[in-house]
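Hi V.,

You were right to ask for the full record rather than a summary. Here it is.
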Amino acid sequence: MNQHKDQAAPADGPNPKSLWWTLVIGLLLAFGILEYAAHRWLFALEQAAYGRETSAAEARDFVCQGASNHPICAAAFARAGRPPAALWLGNSQLAAINRMQPGDRNAPAILHADLAARGRYLVSYQMPNASLDEHLLTVEAVLPTYDPQLVILPICYDDIRETSIRGDVRAMIDMPGVRASMATDPLGAEMLRVAAAGTTDAEVSTDDPKSVRPKVEAAIVGWLEAHSSLWAKRDSLRGMLGFAVHTLRNKILGINSQSKRAVPPSLEAERLARLDRFLREMRSRGTRVLIYAPPYRQNVSGPYVTADYARFKARLAAMAAANGAHYADLDNIVPGPEWGMVTDDLFGFQEYDFMHFTAAGHQRLANGVDAQLRAMQF
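Predicted structure:
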């Protein structure tokens, strides 16, 4: 029987110096790539949702997102003397302008001025890809601040898939008096539970209050952020990498902005059931509601399944009628030439934009919403 002896490694083994040199060269290459990305590619992440042709309009003190800038809008409302208010929720469609020119205004700025001339006040809370839950939590959180006579709520079919509540919106619960106020009504209590269920372990501190570790870590992180531009930009660099992977994966698979994306029926039913509860609560409070189907590009084939979208809008109209709310279909209010393209700065890939349009489109949206408000005698 043949027996095999163990083969000993060469007497000299790997060269430790070569291993160290390999590590050093690898670290230098990685550092160089990160430095290049931080200075050449990082800006692309900030404009990823808009593309090269579209930009966010100038910040206003009647346009906010969440807890971090809520005090700005609240203070502006107080300075205005707390006139009868309308609260307009939205996503990046309300903020961004395609092919923006000096002096261009977005729809909230236009409608704010129009309502001010009638002794009314418009405040808007908007966030890219905002979920319905984020909208509803925001309304519940700011009701004590503005006591709005009217809530304007776009129901974007594409955003029905979004179910998360981001930290800045969730933080509104901890604003003075908000948690107690939300706990007094059924929908507010429901949104408190939804927000708590969406909190990740990373957002909940489990450190011993007496531990010195958090202080030491905070000191180290603070020093690194002050002395290393790469460390300070680490979150953005991670985001850029995720964006790059997502973009390339879609390109390889042939997925683009026109690819049909059906909304799961169970998710749609869940979202609309919560919307129904919201409408019922607003009716019981005496707060009027305008829900609308937002502008949707019509001159090219888009991502919505036509029959599903038509049925969805019919359900919105029926729900509004059943709850004493007002419904408007504004999806065809902006013509094709006033829409834009999305060209990302990282790879230069170009797709049709189904969310953002020019200042002329914003004027049309503001006029369309204002016509509905006038019909509601607001």
